Amino acid sequence: MSALRKRTYPLGLALTLVCLLTLLLTACGGGTQTTSTQKAPASKQVFVYPEAGVTDIATFDPGLSTDLYSIQAIDMVFTGLVQLDNNLTVQPQLAASWQSSDDGLTWTFHLKPNLKFSDGTSLTSQDVAYSIDRALQPAEHSTTAPIYLALIKDSDLLQKGKIKTIINDSIQTPDPNTVVITIKKKAAYFLDALTYSCSYVVERKLIDKYGKSWTDHLDEGGGAGPFKVQSYQHGKQIVFVPNPNYYGPKPQLQKVIFPFYQKVETAYQAYRSGQVDEAGVPSPYIDQARKGKDFHLVPQLWINYYTMNYLVKPFDSINIRRAFALAINKNEIVHAVWKDTLIPTNHIVPQGMPGYNPNLKGPDGTTSTAGNPALANQYLEAGLKDEGLSNVSQLPTITLTYSTGSADSDREVAALVQQWQTVLHISVKAHAEDFNKLLEDIVAATNNPRGLQFWGIAWIADYPDPQDWLTLQFDAGVPNNNMNYGQNNSPDARQQQATQKLLEQADAMPNGPARYQAYNKAEQQLVNDVAWLPMEQVQAAYVVKTYVHGFFYNPQQLIPPDYWSQIYITQH
To answer: Which of 29, 140, 150, 272 is the most exposed place for a label (fewest CB within 10 A)?
Structure first.
């Protein structure tokens, strides 16, 4: 998503993908304990599933998807050639099968028979080609298609407006049921990248009819996912009903409602009063919630982090960056703010991902997450010299921007501000703004010395490959490199660019220990450079009514489309 995805309540740790899934299924099993095993009638098959922390989704257009809230809604209505299951394994979706050429550059997908959009219109290979091409068109202004579709040959030329289309070029449709995609280089992660929602298939006639407002008319069609939109009231709720033309197993739920709650705490109180069927648990209520049979703590491949703009002083100094990082006692914050439901970390690639480095060190050369005040002050002194300053009072105003919607996030930022004041004697101004506005401001920081200076956000795995966590965030010119790593004039820029080259080399290597070792080396340098300031790995603390059978979160906090068929309501 320019893949910035964030919920603002606790979520995080995994051991290995296999262990992750085992824990996940164990947690889900607890959710099936209900007071009745009798299925409720169709009129009662209604699931109220709040979007907590936002007043609306940022977009319903798959080509523009950037965040978890939007993708949770998009995944209800749209699907792609392939998608990830609850184990983050690539599975057939619109495609029934595929094969690649011997050189790994040509991929042929065979569609499932008799595919239809929700309005009954046939879905063919031409629709797949149109959708991928559309996502890359300059007029779409997608920040994600240039990332996840970058491997497709000539995608960069299309995105820059140098060619008009890649249809009949790198995307061919020899017949209505076959799509052939040519990529520019062999890559182990091509299918993984293709699971991202910017490749999902959309219905052209709805877009031609309504233009940019087409997503306000999804009650007329538009997608081929398990649900269709019955109604969408901006700022209030989205109501989904089953898509009668869905090609996969049909949902048992007859209605799913996504009400919007600006604050996580308000959604949790709505759960307690019976207005919604699921909710994240804010930290002050964790101890109370743990006692209930409806409580779950589920591993997530999710890192909460802060980052600083290399183009905005004083964060062009690697010493200042290290001073800020080492002044933080992450252990204290996780205990005091998050009630030990999150895991303090120095890692960019989370535990549970292939390529996780158990030997990674923090900027002080240790595995400690408790900070290092003495070394932090040494780095601060060196940083002041870098900036030509003699004391901290001469530093420019430092503002940390983060998302509104969670009292837990407010408390974490307050704790950070206090630690920086106590350890470094630096005052930091906290600025909370709407989540969707924050996403816009983060993107606008790219190559912008007047952009955001310092911000907090999160990243959740798009697919189980370290490339998703490293190259997509920090390589030269990638849309997610909003902190301008390697894209600056600092004394360390050349070293940063060498790290970017190492990431590109790792991308091109076949899967195996050597590839992961290259990523490990790059990640260690990124941590040394404080390209990110990782805070916590997350696990989802949530409650779900015991009469909701089969509900679960996968490691991305998403429900794969075919798995909706397993969720239903029992008598209560």
So the answer is: 29
Separation of CA 349 from chain center: 13
**pLDDT beyond 80 at 25:** no
pLDDT at 486: 98
Residue 110 neighbours by CB under 8 Å, 6+ apart = 95, 96, 97, 98, 177, 178
Q: What is the pLDDT of residues 148-173, one digit of tens each?
A: 999 999 999 999 999 999 999 999 99
DSSP, collapsed to helix, strand or coil, labels residue 303 as strand
The rounded Cα 394 to chain-centroid distance in angstroms is 37
> How many Å apart are CA 311 and CA 485, to the nearest integer?
9
Comparing C-alpha atoms, which of 57, 148, 81 is closest to residue 468?
148
Contacting residues for 362 by C-beta, under 8 A, at least 6 apart? 325, 326, 346, 368, 369, 527
CB 255 within 8 A of CB 277: no
Residue with tokens 């995080």: 12
CB 162 within 8 A of CB 20: no
Residues 6+ apart with CB under 8 A from 180: 106, 107, 108, 109, 171, 172, 173, 174
Query: CA 137, CA 146: separation in Å to the nearest integer?
Result: 10
- Give the Cα separation of 389 and 348 in Å (integer): 31
Alpha-carbon distances of 272 from 98, 102, 283, 378, 400, rounded to whole Å = 47, 57, 15, 49, 33
**What's the confidence (pLDDT) of residue 2?**
31
What pTM was estimated for this model as a whole?
A: 0.82
Residue 450: both structure tokens together: 């007047």
> Please, is 373 exposed, middle or buried when counting C-beta atoms within 10 Å of its C-beta (0-12, 13-18, 19+)?
middle
Task: Tell me which H or E stretch contains 361.
Answer: none
In angstroms, the CA 231 to CA 387 distance is: 55
What are 425-450's pLDDT values in tens digits?
A: 999 999 999 998 999 999 999 999 99
Residue among 410, 264, 244 at smallest CA distance from 337:
410
DSSP helix/strand/coil, 46: strand
Question: What tokens does 509 get?
Answer: 């290597």
With H, G, I as helix, E, B as strand and everything else as coil, classify residue 482.
Answer: coil
